[in-house]
Amino acid sequence: MCGRFSLVEAMYDLQQYYQFEMREDFLYTPNRNLSPSQQAAAIVQVNGHRYPASFRWGLIPPFAKDEKIGYKTFNARSETVAEKPSFRKAFQSKRCLIPASSFYEWKKSGKDKQPFEIKRRDGEPITFAGLWESWRHNDEIVRSCTILTTEPNDLMADIHNRMPVILERNSFDQWLDPEENKESLQKLLKPCASELLTAEAISGDRFKKSGASQ
Questions:
Q1: Looking at the DSSP assignment, which residues form a beta bridge with residue 60?
Q2: Which of 21, 71, 72, 92 is the most buried (most CB within 10 A)?
Q3: CATH architecture of 5-209
Q4: Is 96 a catalytic residue?
Q5: Rounded to an integer, what distance in angstroms lies between the CA atom of residue 51 and that of residue 154?
Q6: Where are the domains of the chain?
Q7: Which parts of the chain are coiled coil (predicted)?
Q8: pTM, whole model, 2 decimals?
Q9: Percent helix, strand, coil in the chain (nearest 5)?
Q10: Strands 140-150 and 49-57: what pairing?
């Protein structure tokens, strides 16, 4: 799973890396401990152009009765995403890139949990495969997102039994292309190479200070 991540890159660096066109209404605030229900930055594609967007983390499907479902849908299993009612329409046409500086995972050891911070070894942003949706509540429209997960690679298997789907730059166009077929997309939903990542044990104090825990 992926239940916490950070994004602290400068906006200019994100724009250069993801090659998106800026929007005046896009607001970006770096966050070292982003958790479900908070606003997450993402990149979407409209008519062949990439734009930044801000989504509430925790996908709320259009048929939801209330927004509480988002606390259960901040991740989507890649093995079933094409069939699950909450995700299948978004998988067909509302895919996005979700950038991160790092993500956090907790390794169980008896009754204790040791947090790890996972980053790319080359220092580039991590790019999660994401989906987004729009949900209407009276006159309000809430746009939300989810991060796809898959089986762990060798590095992550020692920490947790799931990991986020991490996309490489050469697959961004394919993931964002609304015309891409399901079979080709499924081939992208696999664990990245262990050599791509580093995992460092960190203190849990940073999460206690913000009231966050796992």
A1: none
A2: 92
A3: Alpha-Beta Complex (3.90)
A4: no
A5: 34
A6: 5-209
A7: none
A8: 0.94
A9: 20, 40, 40
A10: parallel
